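Database export, one record per block. Field names are fixed; values are copied verbatim from the stored entry.
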Amino acid sequence: MLPRPHVYGPVVDDQTRCVHYRTPQDVIAIKFECCRRYYPCFQCHAESEAHPATQWPESEWSERAILCGVCGTEMSILAYRAATNCPSCAAEFNDGCRLHAHLYFAVPAPATNPREYGPPAATVSPARQPPQRPCASAQRERPSQRPSAATITDATSMPSPVASAGRYRRSCSRRTVSTLAVLNVV
């Protein structure tokens, strides 16, 4: 019997579960095409390696690149993609792994929320970029923050709408100025 291959990354047990995926069905490790090392998931590879992951081309799917963490059987990518259980020990595989098959194999990405499952290995998802905030000057004067007429003692202390509109136009985007005009701030 051959020795069981080493599984790299932050595994939490001897059945290849990791800190990212550790349900009873998360019992496989995938040999990454780029480094030929077994990792439990794409996040373990990203955290442990200095190179980006590459996907297995379909022409190499006969390669033994899937390790059952329960019995240690290595299977081909073709066999794994056709199965829901290990062909040797019948251990159930996590069906949710199919949602990120595109991170391991040359297949199209599923039509799901990329933020939930991560972007393809060589791209940066726009969904992972931080949301843009309105500029600071637009946040200074919101209708709810303006003093009411009852609290204003000297009307000359208020900035002129014309002067403040120019200030907003210089420091904010056109969209913010339009929003402020609708709110009757400028």
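Remark 1: The first strand starts at residue 28 and ends at 31.
Remark 2: The beta strands are 28-31, 38-39, 64-68, 74-76.
End of record.
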